[in-house]
Design goal:
- This protein has one domain.
- Helix content is 74%, strand content 0%.
- With 145 residues, the chain is mainly alpha-helical.
- It starts with a helix and ends in a 5-residue tail after the last helix.
- It has 7 helices and no strands.
Length: 145
């Protein structure tokens, strides 16, 4: 018989898991309303931004989908305390890297970005790294089973 006290996690675990769920749900929402799928949103973009969206290859869109849906699934697995969370967050991190590699390295259309416009991609990458490493740490502590 297991002791319930040994099974409880600190509030920080649950806070991180819930914030991860909300963060990744926002990512799925952003994916769903992105200009490539929403003609009204395309009209709001300037010519350079529109050209960048229109020139995005399928593989970059797939990477974006893997990033957001993998992150959401990872957050759900983390809340359920399942080991697969690390794998899902790893897939999400890979998706983030591939997605941003296209946007910043391989895109044929270069949109000049200010330092402020690089803040959000940097935050996304750092959060994806953190969630992957956090899930792996929770596995090593036998929190995720």
């Amino acid at each position: 018989m297991t002791d319930d006290m040994n099974d409880k996690q600190p509030w920080t675990f649950w806070t991180i898991a819930v914030v991860a769920l909300l963060w990744n749900a926002l990512g799925v929402f952003a994916f769903a309303i992105q200009p490539a799928f929403n003609p009204d949103a395309m009209q709001q973009l300037n010519a350079e931004q529109r050209a960048l969206v229109e020139s995005t290859p399928l593989w970059a869109m797939i990477a974006y989908g893997v990033a957001v849906f993998g992150g959401l699934a990872g957050a759900i697995a983390l809340l359920l305390r399942r080991k697969i969370a690390a794998l899902l967050f790893g897939a999400s991190l890979l998706g983030v890297i591939v997605q941003f590699a296209h946007a910043f390295i391989f895109a044929s259309v270069k949109v000049p970005l200010s330092g402020a416009q690089l803040v959000l991609p940097s935050i996304v990458i750092l959060i994806a790294i953190f969630l992957y490493l956090y899930a792996r740490k929770q596995i090593s502590k036998d929190v995720l089973k």
